[in-house]
Amino acid sequence: MQMVGERLGILDQFQGVDELRVEPDGSLEILERVEGGKHQVSVCAGPPALLGWATGHLPEPRNNPQVGMANMRGILPALQRAKAAAVGGGGVRFVEVSLPRQQRETRIVKDLSPEQIAREILAWISGD
């Protein structure tokens, strides 16, 4: 989905959307799933936007991704009635495609205090 959105020039992309509300000013309020069953609330100025739907308000049972597809049954009829959009690559040409280099630096350190660990994480995030 992300690649299709990029080719269409849609930069506002949201994956794992559980709820979508259209505000009176035409903006979109999007409830997007993040790690640990929590949600992130995002506001998009308006269409176009790419939305990868999750399961709505229903929890997804373990090892059962079919629940999300079953929830799509209510959405697909509306999508099928939508007007077709012109899809244009706009002269996009891929010169080279490769997998990102995988790099893992594991360090095992014992007896660090939580404060020392927090300082190291903060230094790593800030690039110091």
Number of strands: 4
User: What is the H/E order?
Assistant: HEEEEHHH
Low-confidence spans = none
Neighbour order of strands in the largest sheet? 3-2-1-4
Computed over alpha carbons, the radius of gyration is: 20 Å
Separation of the first and last Cα atoms: 35 Å
Q: Give the % helix.
A: 10-25%
Which structural class best describes the helix and strand composition?
alpha+beta
Shape: extended
How large is the count of helical segments? 4
Strand content: 15-25%
Mean pLDDT: 81
Sheet with the most strands?
4 strands, mixed
Please characterize this protein's 3D structure.
There is one protein chain. The protein has four helices and four strands; from the N terminus they run H-E-E-E-E-H-H-H. The chain has 128 residues and is an alpha+beta fold. The relative contact order is 0.13. The mean pLDDT is 81. It has a domain at 1-85. The protein has a four-stranded mixed sheet, with no helix packed on it. The chain has helices at residues 2-7, 66-71, 76-81, 114-126; strands spanning 13-22, 28-33, 39-44, 50-53. The protein is 24% helix and 20% strand. A hairpin with a 5-residue loop joins strand 2 (28-33) and strand 3 (39-44).
